[in-house]
Design goal:
- By secondary structure, the chain is of the alpha/beta class.
- The protein has two domains: 30 residues; 177 residues, Glutaredoxin (3-Layer(aba) Sandwich).
- The chain has six helices and nine strands, in the order αβββααβαβαβββαβ.
- The radius of gyration is 17 Å and the shape is globular.
Length: 217
């Protein structure tokens, strides 16, 4: 009998837990996102469970009651480098930390593809760049990225405290690799967070993401 997609997902999850030396339990199996609807503005954001670069599990559900920013990341992408080399992304992460907002950076590059790193390398890059995410999550199979429709790095999403997706798209309004453009651009993510924190409806909830393509398998 050929293995099903679900059984392969379970086996992959078991492998991850063994690799990180974690104690396995049935409840720790990664959620079967094949059965979940794709992400849609105004609807409940699809839940997921992923390991971070320290071997800890994170699920979207555990952060309900807080705003959550999801950032698809690839440090080898020039568009990502633009926002990190300038300090723009770190400034936004500082803003979220000051407002008790969770920031989850997600790496969906497949093994052997640009932007796929071992956990130790991820942690080294984070330290070198002075980045401040709550966690870096490993999605090398691309399951979560595909459910959310992440197409580029960066591709940004915001989930509100009720668990609804309230923003998806670009970090800002100027799609370039030129650092000088940052000061002239409208930062969609910060604007959406400020509106939501103030109890207002997000005025720009969806934009076209720009950057390098996510390197799925």
């Amino acid at each position: 009998m050929m293995p099903t997609k679900r059984s392969l997902t379970i086996l992959a999850s078991l492998f991850l837990f063994v690799s990180f030396g974690l104690e396995f339990s049935p409840g720790a199996i990664a959620l079967d996102l094949q059965q979940q609807p794709t992400a849609e503005i105004g609807k409940a954001a699809p839940d997921f469970m992923l390991l971070d670069t320290y071997g800890n599990t994170h699920s979207l559900k555990e952060y309900k009651g807080k705003h959550v920013v999801l950032e698809w990341i690839n440090h080898d992408c020039p568009f990502v480098r633009k926002h990190y080399n300038s300090g723009n992304m770190q400034s936004l992460q500082k803003f979220t930390a000051e407002n008790d907002i969770v920031w989850l950076s997600i790496g969906s590059s497949a093994p052997g593809e640009q932007g796929n790193f071992e956990p130790g390398v991820w942690n080294q890059l984070t330290e070198e760049k002075g980045a401040m995410p709550t966690a870096i999550l490993l999605d090398s199979e691309g399951v979560v990225g595909k459910v959310y429709g992440a197409q580029t790095t960066p591709h940004m999403y915001i989930v509100n405290p009720a668990g609804a997706l309230i923003y998806a798209g670009a970090i800002d309004s100027i799609p370039s690799v030129d650092i000088d453009d940052i000061s002239e651009a409208q930062n969609y993510v910060k604007a959406a967070l400020r509106e939501s924190l103030a109890g207002k409806e997000v005025s720009v909830s969806s934009t076209k993401a720009y950057g390098c393509s996510v390197k799925y398998a």
